[in-house]
From TrEMBL:
Listed Gene3D superfamilies: Cysteine-tRNA ligase, C-terminal anti-codon recognition domain, HUPs
Subunit structure: Monomer.
HAMAP family per UniProt: Cys_tRNA_synth (MF_00041)
Protein name listed in UniProt: Cysteine--tRNA ligase
Protein localization: Cytoplasm
Annotated Gene Ontology cellular component terms: cytosol
InterPro entries: Cys-tRNA-ligase, Cys-tRNA-synt_Ia_DALR, Cys-tRNA/MSH_ligase, Rossmann-like_a/b/a_fold, tRNA-synt_1_cat_dom, tRNAsynth_Ia_anticodon-bd
Signal sequence interval, chain numbering: none
Binding, Zn(2+): C33, C212, H237, E241
A single GO BP: cysteinyl-tRNA aminoacylation
Keywords for this protein: Aminoacyl-tRNA synthetase, ATP-binding, Cytoplasm, Ligase, Metal-binding, Nucleotide-binding, Protein biosynthesis, Zinc
Protein source organism: Aureliella helgolandensis
Catalytic activity entry: tRNA(Cys) + L-cysteine + ATP = L-cysteinyl-tRNA(Cys) + AMP + diphosphate
Family: Belongs to the class-I aminoacyl-tRNA synthetase family.
């Protein structure tokens, strides 16, 4: 299968959408800046991984071979401070927090990462990279510290739209060693009691920016296709990465710089309706856009508890329901609405399993394989001439067009909702709840329709396993509600059997007034939150 030629990507470097053309035809190298593992992850750390996991899924689905790298920064001032505070080695803190990060990724269905290099495992590559910059005249050493000379790069500042005069330099003792305030550290001389590595400039450790340049080059090459990260990384991290890699190699570091919007706390909008994200800020206004971002310093945290309360699927869906470059407004209302919206899909899936006697969920590697090609989806609808499959073919085409347009999951989700509604309408119109109406032809059409839902859901990393109820939906309160609903449904059934339709309608209408709907099926009555 030849890769799709329709994909367009917004490039932060050029500030416009561009046709997606890879360095090597049919292959994609993609790098996402990962966490500094000094404390437990918070919800903001999951935005980029979920988005780029979905991007990889769609690229693979569209025919590309994708190598996706997410780095781990396991040496840093914050890590050292955390280790000292706890009285344990820095490596112990890094290992514990990396395990926490990876457990959260797994819970949110982020399973497409191919490589997760650690800075401490790549010291030789980092040191060699710095040596090349010094040899080429772009870096200098002073008393054990090595700095990148920003004045030697005439293009410095193009990613963040800054001038050299607008740079802010590091303070402290390092400032006196610099030739200009905007120069940044490539290697830091060791301080007493801190972890360090031997180098041509003495014992020390690398600066933050050089780590990513060295690790990405080692795995993806001097120029790769996509470099991703949060909007807060445009400056200084990505600007400095870009400069040191371009100067070292004489060629671009990445073809496309992609930045996801950040997360802010606040009231959320309605899922499936108005967007709960603010409009995308231009790269030149990074400070304004990042001023209110969620971070550990602002009290964010407890991701494991949040996942337990809300489920990973619900959080993933919440993060994907708008265009990735926009700012996410985070709040409990939005998560709850995301859960209710997912519930509509899962009710359709349960309906399919009940009527067909078959499992909707694929097992083992089937789910990943299903999302890796458009061929199965094309074949599924190849003979559609009228009715349900014709409608679904149009919705599928619309979904894919929106994903081709800078991976617009938010817009694509609207087609996913309509796919579900269209299938439900078909089941109702053909009266498939009545077993006598379930002809082989109708059920095969139903199966084909559900295959479309499975295909599009797999692109987003959804509907690949049976849903787990959120903790907020379980426990003693949930059991009480279930018990009360059984009593009310039984009372209504008794009233209907006596032809007391006034009482039956009163129960139904009263429940509807508090957001609960009843569905009368041949097999019995079911209930759900509206």
């Amino acid at each position: 299968m030849a890769p799709s030629s329709k994909i367009r990507v917004y490039n932060t470097l050029t500030r416009q959408k561009e046709d997606f053309q890879t360095v090597e035809p049919g292959k994609v190298g993609m790098y996402l800046c990962g966490p500094t593992v000094y404390a437990e992850a918070h919800i903001g750390h999951m935005v980029g991984p979920v988005i780029f996991d979905t991007i990889k899924r769609y690229l693979v689905y569209s025919g590309y071979q994708v190598l996706w790298v997410v780095n781990i920064t396991d040496v840093d001032d914050k890590l050292i401070a955390s280790a000292n505070k706890r009285g344990v080695p820095m490596s112990q803190v890094a290992t514990e927090m990396t395990m926490d990060y990876m457990a959260n990724l797994q819970a949110l269905g982020v399973n497409q990462i191919d490589s997760m290099p650690r800075a401490t495992d790549n010291m030789d590559e980092i040191i060699h990279f710095i040596e090349e910059l010094i040899e080429n005249g772009f870096a200098y050493e002073n008393a054990g510290d090595v700095f990148f000379d920003v004045t030697r790069d005439p293009e410095y500042g193009q990613l963040s739209n800054r001038t050299l005069e607008g740079q802010l330099g590091e303070g402290g003792g390092a400032a006196a060693k610099k030739r200009s305030a905007g120069d940044f550290a490539l290697w830091k001389s060791a301080k007493k009691g801190e972890p360090s590595w031997a180098s041509p400039w003495g014992e020390g450790r690398p600066g933050w920016h050089i780590e990513c340049s060295a690790m990405s080059r080692k795995i993806l090459g001097k120029t790769f296709d996509i470099h991703g990260g949060g909007l807060d990384l445009v400056f200084p991290h990505h600007e400095n990465e870009l400069a040191q890699s371009r100067c070292c190699h004489g060629q671009p570091m990445a073809r496309y710089w992609m930045h996801n919007g950040l997360m802010r706390s606040g009231a959320a909008g309605k899922v499936g309706g108005k967007s709960d994200r603010q409009s995308t800020a231009p790269p030149a206004d990074v400070e304004a856009e990042t001023a209110g971002k969620i971070s550990r310093s602002k009290g964010a945290g407890g991701l494991a508890k949040l996942i337990e309360e809300q489920t990973g699927d619900r959080i993933r869906f919440f993060l994907l329901r708008s265009q990735y470059r926009s700012t996410i407004v985070f709040g409990p209302e939005g998560l709850e609405e995301a859960g209710q919206s997912l519930g509509a899909f899962y009710r359709l899936i349960a309906r399919f399993e009940r009527l067909s006697g078959e499992s909707f969920y694929l097992r083992g590697d089937q789910e990943l394989e299903y999302a890796k090609t458009r061929v199965a989806g094309d074949a599924n609808l190849a003979n559609a001439q009228a009715g349900l499959l014709t409608e679904l073919a149009k919705l599928r085409a619309s979904f894919l067009e929106k994903m081709d347009d800078d991976f617009n999951t938010g817009a694509a989700v609207s087609d996913l909702f309509e796919t579900s509604r269209t299938i439900n309408r078909y089941v109702d119109a053909e009266n498939l709840e009545d077993s006598t109406q379930r002809t082989a032809e109708r059920m095969q059409t139903f199966r084909s329709g559900m295959s479309v839902l499975r295909e599009l859901g797999a692109i987003l990393g959804l509907f690949h396993k049976e849903p787990k109820n959120a903790a907020s939906d379980e426990g003693a309160d949930g059991q009480v509600v279930d018990g009360l609903m059984k009593v009310l449904i039984d009372l209504r059934a008794q009233a209907r059997a006596k032809k007391d339709f006034a009482t039956s309608d009163t129960i139904r209408d009263g429940l509807a007034g508090v957001g609960i709907t009843l569905q009368d099926l041949k097999e019995g009555t079911t209930w759900e939150k509206a």
